[in-house]
Amino acid sequence: MARQPLGGRLRESSVTSGRTLKFVKEIGSTTSLSSAAGIVAGTGILSGASPFGQHAASTIRDSREREKKEMSDLNDRLATYIEKVRFLEAQNRKLAADLDLLRGKWGKDTFNIKQMYEGELLEASKLIGETAKQRDDLDKQILKMQDELNQYRKRYEDFLRVGEMDRKKIDEMFVQLSQLEADTNTLRRRITELEEEVMRMKKENQRLIGELQRTRTDVDQETLNRIDYQNQVQTLLEEVDFIKRVHEQEIRELQSLAARDTTPENREFFKNELASAIRDIRAEYDQVNLFLFFINLRFM
Question: What molecular function terms (GO) are annotated for this protein (predicted)?
Fold first, then answer.
């Protein structure tokens, strides 16, 4: 197996340590963000949200707790790998020091030294190869862990984005709820006003029904009175007609008597009696006409 210079191994180990340190810092930053998000969720910033928003916040908080636990496990695994790398690097440094010491003594008892350290050199070469293989495995695992970390970071950002969208939806729903409550209150006031108007109209309707009933009663009474008056008028007309015929008969008789009596005194007497009878007939006729006029005026 071809050996690489120990200095090259040490430089690569330093690069690996730097990459590992950067990865630990990124994990720390992500853990801090998750902790901050958990504090924000725990302080009750979303306490005014609806049960749906609280459930979403609880789900996000549980997801962040799982992520924190997974990241803590990854940190523990990474710390174990780093300790292994440091242990192997320390062994490499010790072997490099031993090799330098052997190189300083290369000219003295070369064969004996070769026999003495050949097994150790083979073991060291094998150990270096295994260390390189383990380091490659660790690099692969670190890359895999970085990919996982990026995935967790992306999931965390997605959760934040979904949480922000949910918060906006909740705010919009609160606005819609406020508008619906305002509309409901307006409708309730309108319904109350309509109910009051209906009650007022019912009372007015009852009053009008009462007045209509009284008016019907009055109309019926007036109809009866009118029929009675019409009967009276008819009777009076018949009486007037009868009186008129009687008076006409009396006038004719008086006129005939006046024609037969030739004395001036008798003619004057019958003339006065005739004038008096005509006045009486006219007065009675005027009273009847006046009575009929008032009756017609009442029923117009």
Answer: structural constituent of cytoskeleton
Q: What is the mean pLDDT of the chain?
A: 73
Q: Which residues contact 187 (CB under 8 A, 6 or more apart)?
A: none
User: 5 in the Ramachandran plot: left (φ > 0), alpha (ψ -120 to 50) or beta?
Assistant: beta
Q: Which two tokens stand for residue 188?
A: 């309730």
Task: Find the length of the chain.
Answer: 300
- How many other CB atoms sit within 10 Å of the CB of residue 124? 20
The whole-model pTM stands at 0.29
Q: Where are the domains of the chain?
A: 6-179, 225-299
CATH architecture of structural domain 6-179: Up-down Bundle (1.20)
Spatial separation of the C-alpha atoms in residues 297 and 300, rounded to whole Å: 5
Q: What is the dihedral of CA 195, 196, 199, 200, to 10 degrees?
A: -140
Give the pLDDT score at 198: 92
44: left (phi over 0), alpha (psi -120 to 50) or beta: left
Tell me if 273 sits within 8 A of 255, measured CB to CB. Answer: no
